[in-house]
Write a structure and sequence with these properties.
mainly alpha, 391 residues
């Protein structure tokens, strides 16, 4: 690596520690909370070289994104020609760092790790109050350790869309949780999600529209907002259908053809983690999206890590459901959890239809799993009342 690369890496590390200290002081965090974030920051930054090594060995989109070779621009050599949505935006973002500054791939991964770590700082802010010490049980004492689940750190600590999608999601959830004082967070969060992966941005927009009108601060306008939100949600679905119909014809058959093409395209790579999703029952598809690979499907270190995390997730769901049953389903659900649960449910349905590779499923669901896990763990033992504080 060049001297500039090492200088950039040193800058990134120092920036992370400075941001933690600055944020902790602003929020009035205790010494324990500040040290927790420092440990989380070290853990996350370590994932960047691990992700770097993984891509060098197995390949991946991240290398092509960084080298601006995944999607050729209309006018090579012009930064503005790279701008667009999806992959085009990622390459546009990378252009000044790779093409102009000449930074290597490892510093590029650390750059994305810093962006996603801001999401982890926000995630800490979101869920730290969901596990109060006064519970005196293991979720209360150790619930925050879910922030160390490795899958989301791995996929967001390197060049790729997940780093930006995770940060965008956290911004939206922070805006919902602290509405209206931080309501403006929702706008950049949605815009970032929409420009990085439009389909996920639209789903996140639907989740926000479905939940936000029920916030207590908007109670006086609730009837009008619910009607407006319903109209906007319908408009989003209509927009996507018209957009596709202009290309494939005004019918609904093209949706099935695109799904078939997507499955055939992914199967053509003959990856070891491919699964016959199209032949599965609905229950098998659901289990594949959320809980596979299982521990008995382990074939090496990477599948073991994925299977272990899926097992932890499964156990959290079981504990959470059991807690809900004991409370006679009088469940407290903060509004930001409702947003992420709706988002996760819709994205899971899309994954069931369009994906047939366990590795891709682990990557795609990584950005919202820790919030789903934290929700179920937060129901394991608490005073079970319906949360009316935000209604």
């Amino acid at each position: 690596m060049k001297v500039l690369d090492w200088m950039f890496i040193a800058f990134i590390v120092l920036l992370v520690f400075w941001l933690i200290k600055k944020w902790s002081g602003t929020q009035g965090y205790s010494k324990w909370e500040t040290n927790f974030l420092l440990l989380l920051g070290c853990y996350h930054l370590i994932m960047a070289p691990i992700f770097y090594g993984y891509l060098l060995q197995y390949g991946g989109d991240g290398i092509r994104y960084w080298e601006l070779s995944s999607l050729p621009p209309s006018r090579p050599g012009e930064w503005s020609s790279y701008f667009g949505t999806g992959t085009a935006f990622i390459q546009w973002f990378n252009y000044p760092f790779f093409q102009l500054a000449g930074l290597g791939f490892l510093p590029g991964n650390l750059l994305y790790a810093v962006i996603s770590f801001m999401g982890f700082v926000g995630a800490f802010e979101l869920i730290k109050d969901q596990f109060p010490d006064k519970w005196g049980n293991w979720p209360g004492k150790y619930g925050l350790l879910i922030l160390f689940l490795p899958n989301v750190h791995f996929w967001t600590a390197g060049v790729g869309k997940e780093a930006l999608l995770f940060t965008g999601l956290v911004l939206v959830l922070l805006g919902v949780k602290s509405f209206p004082s931080r309501a403006w967070y929702i706008v950049p969060g949605l815009l970032l999600s929409l420009i990085v992966r439009p389909i996920q941005g639209l789903v996140l927009t639907i989740a926000v529209l479905a939940v936000l009108p029920f916030h207590s601060a908007l109670k006086a306008y609730r009837k009008k907002l619910v009607s407006g939100a319903a109209a906007l949600i319908f408009s989003i679905f209509a927009y996507r259908w018209i957009q596709g119909s202009l290309v494939y014809g005004f019918n609904f058959e093209w949706i099935g053809r695109i799904i078939d093409w997507q499955n055939a395209y992914l199967s053509s790579f003959e990856a070891g983690s491919s699964i016959p999703m199209w032949d599965y029952s609905l229950l098998e598809k659901f289990m594949a999206v959320w809980f596979r690979p299982y521990l008995w499907e382990v074939k090496g270190f990477w599948t073991f890590a994925a299977a272990l995390e899926n097992t932890i997730f499964f156990m959290a769901v079981i504990f959470g459901i059991w807690g809900m049953i004991k409370s006679k389903l009088q469940v407290r659900i903060p509004l930001f959890y409702l947003v992420v649960l709706i988002y996760a449910a819709i994205m899971s349905l899309i994954f069931m239809l369009a994906l047939n590779n366990l590795g891709i499923l682990m990557r795609m669901k990584s950005i919202f799993v820790i919030f789903v896990v934290s929700f179920f763990l937060s129901q394991a033992k608490r005073p079970f009342t319906f949360d009316k504080s935000n209604l």
